[in-house]
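Worked example 2:
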Amino acid sequence: MGGAHVTASTGNPAAHGDGLRALGAHRVVSDPSESDEVDGVLDMVGGAQLVAAHDRLAVGGTLVAIGHSAGEAEHFPYGAMFGDFGRHDRSVTSWRSRKRPSTRSRRLWSGQGP
């Protein structure tokens, strides 16, 4: 992850921790709520883990949902998307791969300019 301090979350750190550290994780936790605030999240699970990861986003942070293996819906508590109490300027986006390429171009990542 190009110079980032990476915290990986897995349901079984004992079984997957060494492999995640070999891929570059500095810390492995069993739940995103065990992490300090983060500037970015790549979530491949969805469900409750995505909600917990969103709660760890710092001001200006971005969460990108790129998978949904949990098989459960996301239920954000009331006010989770409000921009108050230091929880402003965060963004959430999703991305999905199609089985066959689209003929139109797609913008996969966008940022806010100055």
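The first strand starts at residue 7 and ends at 9. Strands lie at 7-9, 27-29, 38-43, 57-65, 91-94.
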